[in-house]
Amino acid sequence: MAQFDFIVVGAGSAGCAVAEGLSRSGKYSVLLVEAGKQDRNLWIKVPIGYAVNFQNKKLNWNYHTEPDDGLHGRSIYWPRGRVIGGSSSINAMAYMRGLPVDYDGWAQSGATGWAWSDVEPAFAKMEKRIAEHTDNPVCVSNLSDQMNPFSKTFLTAATHMGWPIVEDPSTLTSEGIGFYQSTVKNGFRFSAADAFLRPALKRPNITCVANAIVERIVISNGRAKGIEYRVGAQTFRARANSEIVLSAGAVNSPKLLMLSGVGPADQIKDKGIKLIHDQPNVGQNLQDHLAINYQFRAKSPTLNNILGQIAPRVFEAAKYVVRRNGALSVPVNQVGGYVKSDQSLDWPDMQIYCNPMSYSIGPNGKLKVDGKPGYLISAQQCRPQSRGQIRLVSSDPATAPKILPHSLSSDTDQTAAVKAVSIIRKIADVRPLLDVTTAPIDRLPETDAEALDDFRNRASTVFHPTSTCRMGTDPRTSVIDPRCRVHGVRGLRVIDASVFPSVTSGNTNGPTMMVAMRATEMMLADQI
User: Fold this and answer.
1) Using CA atoms, how far apart are residues 320 and 326, in angstroms rounded to an integer?
2) 70 touches 456 (CB < 8 A)
3) Binding residues for FAD
4) What is the spatial distance between Cα 8 and Cα 16, in angstroms, rounded to a whole number?
5) Of the candidates 408, 382, 338, 510, the residue with the CA atom closest to the CA atom of residue 74
6) Cis bond leading into 432, ω under 30°?
7) Which family is this sequence assigned to (predicted)?
8) Containing H/E element for 314?
9) From the centroid of its chain, how far is CA 218?
10) Residue 75 CB neighbours (<10 A)
11) Are 422 and 341 contacting, i.e. CB atoms less than 8 angstroms apart?
């Protein structure tokens, strides 16, 4: 049996950062196992390729939720990265820290040491702006000079809404709209694998195994000892002399805990798995952002004039190959930020996106760009209150768990859904957007009742699941302590978005990497 000081399960946004941090000193040996393949797919690297890989089963777990009563019984597609880099290799690359209220709320809920004053320096230590000469790992780029000119039309309309225009929405601590900062470098996606794992793999003390399905964590006498994993038809065991870290994400980290006998006793025993530790909170408290989009036909050119037509698309592809710039070098989420639906609020409660492109989704799930110019406006509630769960289906590690989001189960979230529709309706009616719009592609609801019904009919995930192994001091309400140690099991930590006490106000990739870097520092300090 191979032995390592540390074993990290999952080479995603968190796992890459954890493995890099643990291996940096050269003092410890690290095994990193990832269920997916290497991240060599061309469309991972090309920023506009996000849409191409959206349903690529070779890179993606391709989950679907259970029929959701809050969304009129619809089952929602949940892509999660199954590739080196995890979801940071297939996401839309928008980078946001979240708001101070998010982290102060974490601390108040029992995640001591995770307030805004604690995490803000960690973000600054992690981020590398292109113009800065630092060794910080995560490249965050301002691509405003490459973005479609239509995005400026939206920004002008935003000023008429009274929304402040900012240069860098990623560092917002209040309301503001601007060009989204992106995890892109020199025309290529810059994933967690690029930021953390590739530098780490130059070291002799780290081993990365791809295409490895972890079947369970071996726990003996209350301590995590190792893992069993499968590569193809062959099963392997590895022993951890110090600790094991689960960084498999908000769906698979709770699933792996339950497969290993840690979780709700009824779910574990019912599947014929030996109960190691009854922890009812495993898989509970699931949160996610829900957004609704409205598309409009435009009079002025948008990305549709490039990506929806053969000749311009070929020209842009050639330009990208030669210069690494142009439409293919920029993510489709180009402009947006945080806004208040009511100016009496202390904090923004909505995140807005404007994409200079309209499209349709075919019966096969593939995205097709319209041939005529159009644009899309999207709005989502920043801090939803509804809580869902991840439930174990089988003792077979190859079987996907049940995802039960319980969307809009909170009255507050239903009110927010109506407000999201209202904000889109208002800005779409403001010049200069109104002047460049031919007609809505999607009918805009006229009443609150229609708005809520349309939200239930059409809203979908923004791919930010969190909180299924939530952090806190009290084992009765949390899975891990504020140092990410699993309550009731020694030598086992969870470090990924599943530990968020609650979802942050915006995109979760940045906060996930920050949590991973900070938790790894704590972990190393605990070895002394």
Assistant:
1) 6
2) yes
3) 83, 214
4) 9
5) 408
6) yes
7) Belongs to the GMC oxidoreductase family.
8) helix 310-323
9) 29
10) 12
11) yes
* CA-wise closest residue to 143 among 105, 184, 196, 189: 184
Positive or negative torsion for Cα 181, 185, 189, 190: negative
Pick the closest to residue 94 from 142, 163, 34 (CA basis): 142
- Separation CA 385–CA 382 (nearest Å): 10
> Buried b / exposed e across 356-367, counting CB within 10 Å, b at 16+?
bbbbeeeeeeee
Q: List the domains of the chain with CATH numbers.
A: 1-141+186-288+387-403+465-527 (3.50.50.60), 144-179+290-381+408-458 (3.30.410.40)
DSSP code at position 37? B
Instruction: Name the phi and psi angles at 141, rounded to 5.
Output: -115, 140
Q: Which residues are catalytic?
A: 464
Give the DSSP H or E segment for 151. Answer: helix 150-160
Q: In angstroms, rounded to a whole number, what is the distance separating the alpha carbons of residues 84 and 82? A: 7
CA dist 104 and 126 (Å) reads 20
| Residue listed under structure tokens 């599947």 | 271
pLDDT 10s per residue in the chain (528 long)?
899 999 999 999 999 999 999 999 999 999 999 999 999 999 999 999 988 888 899 999 999 999 999 999 999 999 999 999 999 999 999 999 999 999 999 999 999 999 999 999 999 999 998 767 789 999 999 999 999 999 999 999 999 999 999 999 999 999 999 999 999 999 999 999 999 999 999 999 999 999 999 999 999 999 999 999 999 999 999 999 999 999 999 999 999 999 999 999 999 999 999 999 999 999 999 999 999 999 999 999 999 999 999 999 999 999 999 999 999 999 999 999 999 999 999 999 999 999 999 998 766 667 889 999 999 999 999 999 999 999 999 999 999 999 999 999 999 999 999 999 999 999 999 999 999 999 999 999 999 999 999 999 999 999 999 999 999 999 999 999 999 999 999 999 999 999 999 999 999 999 999 999 999 999 999 997
Residue ranges for the known binding site are: 83, 214
Q: Are strands 181-182 and 213-220 parallel, antiparallel or unpaired?
A: unpaired
Question: β-strands 2-9, 359-361: how paired?
Answer: unpaired
**Token pair belonging to 413:** 């979230």
**Dist. CA 381–CA 171, nearest whole Å:** 19
Torsion sign (Cα): 231, 204, 138, 119: positive
Kind and range of the H or E element at 352? strand 350-355
Q: Is the model's pTM score more than 0.85?
A: yes
